[in-house]
Fold these 3 entries.
Entry 1:
Amino acid sequence: MPPAPPGAIPLARPEPIVCVDQIGYVRFAKSDFASTKRFFTDFGLVLAHESDERLLYRGSGSAPYIYIAEHAPAPAFIGSGFVAANRADLDELARATGQRVAPIDRPGGGECVHLTDPLGFAVDVVFGIEPVAPLPTRTEPLPLNTPFAKPRVNLPQRPPLEPTAVARLGHCVIQTPRFAEVAAWYMRHLGLIPTDVLCLPDGRPALAFLRTDRGSTPADHHTVVVGTGTKNGYLHCAFEALDIDSVAQGQQMLKAGGWRHAWGVGRHLLGSQLFDYWHDPDGFEVEHYADGDVFDASHPTAYRVLDRGGLWQWGADLPGDFVPQLGPGMLVDITRGLLAGDFDFATLKQLGAAMAKAPRPWLR
């Protein structure tokens, strides 16, 4: 029997409670603040607040923080925060979920509805956080000479060797064997729209790039990505930079600092971002990106087959550690998932075949 076409089983979008405007921050537990500070300085975040309990990092934009490190005995991904479109949405979300609107005890104040997603990750929906003055940084891409136009005359191209100037947080990616349940939760509670959905050969959705619903105002191609995996967990979060030079020069700074590179530089297929991935001191993946796609709410959901080749247009092949490797830990995860009914052998087989397929003819 031939494979089902992508989208044969569409990803239904539940009626949303509210529609958030954007992602605001990510939260991590960190046991070693010293190494965290060294890494994120080289990565390009700016330390805005420090105490024994937490570190708050900002970018060059107006948000007072976009990354929160909370001191704890062991490192872990805690969750993420999203900015509500208006104050009334906090009341509506609190009413629909049985929660309450609470004040935020962080610089910038504001209010928050604290939720927990089906995986146990914290999801904060916030409003009223006071903005700060943007930091001075380059705001225009470097001028580009082409075969057809040479605007750069008597002006050599000399981008500074410095950490990537991070403007803001762009998205967060998680995995779970309970894909349909978790994707539906984020669409319902945050009003997210599926932009691109990757499907198994039998037509079932297995990975969704979800964007915020901002009506006629364009939104990033994805703000949350939910993918099918053998266990529940964080995959990466991504921070936006100005252009390819900022991303590539930042790569040199991180390499000089001795940090562990993950993947890049390359260009994604879905979302089009120029990307570069790194491991922080605890092994969590973080990404620099530039030149991403944006869509308004009228753009329809697109479907395609899940495979490695759909993850990037150019650059090195997807590294081996981006693809789950069969071992004792995975066998435990698979057994747990099968016993819980989170997935079946047919799903595992199709996922394995999708990620094993050669992404490019020259990479066979």
Entry 2:
Amino acid sequence: MAGEGAMMQAIQSLAYNKSLRNKHNRSSWKDIKIQDQTPRNDSIQSTPELLEAIKKRLQAENKKRKKQQIIFVISMVLILIFMMYYLN
């Protein structure tokens, strides 16, 4: 019957791949994946002043990141224009 050798090779390959895998219990991963839902005590008490400081810091960081992205895009567009000009 045609194809028996190929199917036998596939079966052997699957068995070999299975033997290479770790022998640990796959159900033990359940314990790692489940996040702990117990509430914890937060040692830092958030005050309105602290929240405002965090808000301002994040806004400054976002503004700086946005400025860098705009500069990067403009420079890439200019480089692309110069490359197209010199290639033509």
Entry 3:
Amino acid sequence: MTTVAFARSRSVIASFVAALLLAGAPATLRAEEEALAPAGTPAPEPALPVPPLFSLKETGQLALLDAKGILLAPLRWDGEDWLKFGFGSAAVVLTGVLLDQPVQEASQRSRTPGRDDFARGIQRFGAEYSWAVLGGYAVFGLAAKDREAMNVAVDGLLASLFAYGIATPVLKFAVGRARPSADLGDHYFTPFSSSNQSFPSGHTTQAFAVASVIAAHDSHLWVKIVAYGIAGTVGLARIEQNAHWTSDVLAGAILGTAIGNAVVLLNDRQRRGAEGPKVTFSPLVAPRGGGLLLTAAF
């Protein structure tokens, strides 16, 4: 009995000692590594902090950079950019000359109560429904910690600010075009007047600004088709509602798409720059000499 008890006690003591050795092994190994490391070797870089999903400060910085990039963009345009601008402008002018009156007359002849109800509903994707879509991306991004969804919400908000909140009102005021419902014809303009605000279509501009942001962030073809399909239907609804001419809608589609894509491009560059490689230099002192240590964190 005594021998058995002593054997059990020895087993318990051995297990206890082994546990202590295992617990102290990492600290012992770290101490040995530090003793063997050359003098002056810099400590390992701490892990880079993960940026928050949303920051008011960062969003404000993006807004300032976007404003600068969009306003000064024509100064950096090359021949291809000016060609695109000229083609878009010509398309709007030709549409106004050739299609505005015929399309307006045809759309009003074919109006029905059912089409009116559908148009009144779908056109909200160029107004309050577009904000609901961006809000959905923001909620999902925060709940699922999905950075790409949060970027869609932020970029969509900024694109809406520049397209729907700034560019559209300025153009409406400067052009001063009468709406079809005013029965003044498709060539009635009162520039720098707040009474006539048909050009461009604000609903269409907003719908395409949000659609272009979603399409730019998502590689799925069906998402792009749905986004641009809804935006295009918003434009058709504004024509059916006799609120805009066809050229107003085309101008809004071009304006919203251009600003939406520009915002995504500018913000992606800024985000890559903020999260890109960080290169630092520090002196290196070793037992047999020294030098300069370059550290790159990716």
